[in-house]
Write a structure and sequence with these properties.
Rossmann fold
């Protein structure tokens, strides 16, 4: 009989421990994560042909990642098939909807899609590398194929400091 009462008390104690007390709600486990939602975002966009035929894309992407880590700036890349500005433009618009504050494009397809979007969204900075676009728009920086890595790295590093809310 004593063994049965002891077993019943042990089972009841286990149920209380598992279900917890009604007077204190169970607290969720503490989760610690980087809050990336309040950070500026720099995005790299290029077409698959440019990405596979030039060393510039991986070098620029590595520089953007390093600068993003150093300056608490989010970075992301988009490499997609596009042979002209008409095909590239919807992809750039998608980056705008993802709140990219700086969009770096490499190659002619994405570079030629920049002017239209840059004029529509002047708060976003664009950098077109190796583009055939030659105009002048205040929020667009044009860079040639020679040494764009340091310029892009600097842009990403200073992005957080100059972020403009849209």
């Amino acid at each position: 009989m004593t063994a049965i009462i002891g077993l019943a008390l042990a089972a009841g104690g286990t149920v209380v421990l598992l279900l917890g007390s009604e007077s204190k709600p169970a607290r969720p486990a503490l989760v610690v994560a980087n809050d990336v939602s309040g950070r500026a975002t720099a995005c790299l966009a290029t077409d698959t042909a440019t990405a596979t035929t030039t060393d510039a894309v991986p070098e620029i992407w590595a520089a953007m990642q390093a600068a993003g880590s150093e300056s608490a700036t989010n970075v992301q890349q988009l490499i997609t098939p596009a042979v002209d500005a008409d095909q590239a433009e919807p992809h750039l618009a998608g980056l705008l909807s993802q709140h990219c504050d700086l969009i770096v494009t490499v190659g002619p397809a994405f570079g030629l899609a920049v002017p239209k979007l840059a004029l529509l969204v002047p708060a976003v900075r664009f950098t077109a590398i190796a583009s055939t676009f030659t105009g002048s728009i205040p929020n667009v920086t044009l860079l040639g194929r020679e040494s764009p890595v340091n310029a892009v790295r600097q842009q990403v590093t200073t992005l957080q400091l100059s972020r403009v809310e849209r």
